[in-house]
Amino acid sequence: MNEVSDIVLFFGRFHPLVVHLPIGFLFFAFILEVYGRWQKDDKIKLAIPLSLFLGAISALVACVLGYMLSLSGDYDQGALDTHFWFGIATTVIAFGAWLISSRKLKVEVLEKGKAYIATLALIVVLLSITGHYGGNLTHGSDYLTAYLPFGKEQKEKLVAVTSIEEAQVFNHLVNPILQDKCASCHNASKKKGQLSFASKEAILKGGKSGAAFVAGDAGASEMIRRVLLDTHHDEFMPPEGKTPLTKEEIAIIEYWVNTGQGDFEIKFGNIESSEEIKLAATEMLGLDASTKESMALANVPSPSETDIKTLIDAGFKIRELVADSNLFDVILPAGTINQENITDVKIKLELLKPLKKNIIWLSVGDNNISDNDLSIFDGFENLQLLKLEKNPITDKGISLCPELKKLTALNLFGTKVSKSSLELLNKFPKLEKLYVWNTNITKEDVQAYRTQNNSEVTVNL
Amino acid sequence: MCDHHDKLRSNNKDLQKVEKMFDRREFLTKTSLGLGAIALGGLLNADKAWSNVKNNVKPDLEMFSRNGLGLPHHMPKAKRAIYLFQSGGPSQLELFDYKPKLKDLFGQDLPESVRQGQRLTGMSADQTTFPIAASTIEFKQYGESRAWVSDAMPYLSEVVDDICFIKSMQTDAINHDPAITFFQTGSQQPGRPSIGSWLSYGLGSDNDNLPTFISLVSKNGGGQPLYSRLWGNGFLPTEHQGVQFRSGKDPVLYLSDPENYDGHDRRNMLDYLGKLNSIQNDSYGDPEINARMSQYEMAFRMQTSVPEVTDMSDEPDYIFEMYGEDSRDPGTYAANCLLGRKLLEKDVKFVQLYHQGWDQHLGCPGGVKMNSKKTDQANAALIKDLKQRGMFEDTLIIWGGEFGRTVYSQGKLTASDYGRDHHPKAFTMFMAGAGVKPGFTYGETDDFSYNVVKDPVHTHDFQATLLHLFGIDHERLIYKHQGRRFRLTDVHGHVVKDILS
């Protein structure tokens, strides 16, 4: 959804550029004042109103642009609010300072020397605070202190895992949850209840209420008791207003404490796990089977628009299986090729060739496709579902059909194939389901084939 | 001002006079109201005027359903679905949810610990006792999956290994209309789009000659009324509404040519009408004008495609025998199942059957048997037929009602007869085909089939799972209407991953 129009965001992105103008102008006004006093130079002070005016105006522009930028929703609301109000305060006070310095506004108290310089100093302080929070928004709150030469341990980089067995239960599963849901209050610098999840040692140390967990006994573990309380309970964690842990997340932590004995190094593959835990863990690690499948196929080249247009003009229906994946479901509606235009078969099927890597599902049933036409499928390396039903195809067609490495389902119902086609199925190594109702294949053929070849293919008659 | 004048000016003098009059009025209306409207339009559309409209980035790619919605979100399993809606609330206790312990409790009052003060309908709330009624229909286990099916459904028992039963369905509503509306639209109040409309809106059509969403109501049901809004589009554009096919001479009303008109100049008429409508569209930009134009065109194509698809003469006798004798009588449940299969074969995305009559407040065993007799053979035949045609790969079959029925008898309980009231807290549905585990049973109820004790599946969870099978993340299929973003699952729903194959 694109509700904030692009032009707003376009201008908004000038905010980081423009903010430096008020910083310069306003700080310069402060320097002029200090310098003027020090050198007893009243002339130089004449430039202060102009400097303040430019500072205030550019601050106003920066505020507007900043607001536009904030509409993108990319920023943490809490930090954003602080920056937002400090920015507005700076601008308002800068305008006030200008009005006073240019004598447009007469506030006697503030015109006295000390109060006046205090206003300018306040502007500088506000500027610094606003700037700091702004910087945190852009670079993250640990940007400034990340390379502090003392007191900060280096974070270990986590190696990404490709299979769930290799995953370390604590580092890959439990710790990300703790860091996500707990560490904003329980970290090295902010230890609510004297508990910190910043390191293994800190966790083992526990907090005010004692140990964080008891290895092997989730029921007696304080950190698990707290997240399982009624949400309105005073001791429920995380406290009101923060996102509570999900059922899966709690299950994972319990699993680590109970089955994993709270071991910080133990691997997922080395301990027993239930189906639910496996499912939750797979999902957490982004190893979901379905996403993996489409990820693996995501590199298919984009077909040319002309090729697609030609196909559509020839009567094919094309649908993208996953948005912007370049993976297609292609249908030639039944009866598009009939006895009258039977010579078109070859021509129409040829049109599929430019998309041979893109076609995942293909339905060409009941279109007078004959044996020789099946050689067309050479190089259809991603094809998973092929529907050839009700075409005059015989065993010869299956023998002419090239190897299809990813084919999982093949529909041959209402064709003229017989049992010798079953022998050819090994050219479809991934085949799981075959549909051969209303063909010359009988139940006995299937039985014989299955016992002989020890085949796992489900044959539907 | 606009090009009405050249294109539409008639040659008749009288008419021209009238037209002039209209023009003056038009002028006044457009200058007074029009200016205001322009100003208001400018205000409201400021966003659009500023942004480059993203949908126009790849105009040519829209031709293969890149509809700008970013759908499907993930790899789909199902391309189409047929939803066999058993309206009235079929009794899970007489069909699938086998509760042998109830026999010993016959006639005893339902313990309060089971009911737990649950809200009842006005029909049985004032009963002084809630006597437990065990099913008088016997159950047996079938198939490799050893699924329990009652003797009321002998045909279905042959295909249990293809079926995924969900015995822990739950809904929020306790009366028919809100409950059906809730199942079909995700809200108990009317006005939201139904499942089929969401699918049509989200995924578009695979067959330009037939509607994406078709509903069939069986004529041999009878019982609680159904309303066409159940297949309505709600606030989605009108072309996504379900089209009802009826039994009888005209499957779709007003589709055939009127008497003494052969339709030879209809194409011209539609072309001219299209011109008029696009002028109208240029001036007002109301999306409903587009919807109407596409509906006219669809109706025109349906004049050929509907008679073709409803023609059963191609079907061999053994197919009719498979679906049962009723299937030769158009409009019956069995005939609708067969028609449903034909529509699915033509790549109609969502076929919605309704069978009324499952509302057994009285005479529950008899009523269940009677309705099973009307539907069982066809249900099983549809499953077998789709399987043998290889359509099981990408077609989803759904069977279920709007709620279940109570374990206690409504009204008088005798050894052989009893009634059952509406029960939303536990009932059975089943699915089969694309993407669901075959020969699988999910969820459990207590010994009274009253409360779910394991893996509850709420109506919203079912809807989320259905969309998931079509490659849609139910949290991301959204339509903004009157300032609020709407989803089929509102703010609820979890995909039931455990039933996915």
Automatic annotation (TrEMBL), chain A:
<dbReference type="Pfam" id="PF07635">
    <property type="entry name" value="PSCyt1"/>
</dbReference>
<dbReference type="InterPro" id="IPR011429">
    <property type="entry name" value="Cyt_c_Planctomycete-type"/>
</dbReference>
<dbReference type="GO" id="GO:0009055">
    <property type="term" value="F:electron transfer activity"/>
</dbReference>
<feature type="transmembrane region" description="Helical">
    <location>
        <begin position="113"/>
        <end position="134"/>
    </location>
</feature>
<dbReference type="InterPro" id="IPR036909">
    <property type="entry name" value="Cyt_c-like_dom_sf"/>
</dbReference>
<dbReference type="Pfam" id="PF09990">
    <property type="entry name" value="DUF2231"/>
</dbReference>
<keyword id="KW-0472">Membrane</keyword>
<dbReference type="InterPro" id="IPR019251">
    <property type="entry name" value="DUF2231_TM"/>
</dbReference>
<protein>
    <submittedName>
        <fullName>Uncharacterized protein</fullName>
    </submittedName>
</protein>
<dbReference type="InterPro" id="IPR032675">
    <property type="entry name" value="LRR_dom_sf"/>
</dbReference>
<keyword id="KW-0812">Transmembrane</keyword>
<feature type="domain" description="DUF2231">
    <location>
        <begin position="14"/>
        <end position="138"/>
    </location>
</feature>
<feature type="transmembrane region" description="Helical">
    <location>
        <begin position="82"/>
        <end position="101"/>
    </location>
</feature>
<keyword id="KW-1133">Transmembrane helix</keyword>
<feature type="transmembrane region" description="Helical">
    <location>
        <begin position="47"/>
        <end position="70"/>
    </location>
</feature>
<dbReference type="GO" id="GO:0020037">
    <property type="term" value="F:heme binding"/>
</dbReference>
<feature type="domain" description="Cytochrome C Planctomycete-type">
    <location>
        <begin position="182"/>
        <end position="241"/>
    </location>
</feature>
<feature type="transmembrane region" description="Helical">
    <location>
        <begin position="17"/>
        <end position="35"/>
    </location>
</feature>
From TrEMBL, chain B:
<protein>
    <submittedName>
        <fullName>Sulfatase</fullName>
    </submittedName>
</protein>
<dbReference type="InterPro" id="IPR006311">
    <property type="entry name" value="TAT_signal"/>
</dbReference>
<dbReference type="Pfam" id="PF07394">
    <property type="entry name" value="DUF1501"/>
</dbReference>
<dbReference type="InterPro" id="IPR010869">
    <property type="entry name" value="DUF1501"/>
</dbReference>
<dbReference type="InterPro" id="IPR017850">
    <property type="entry name" value="Alkaline_phosphatase_core_sf"/>
</dbReference>
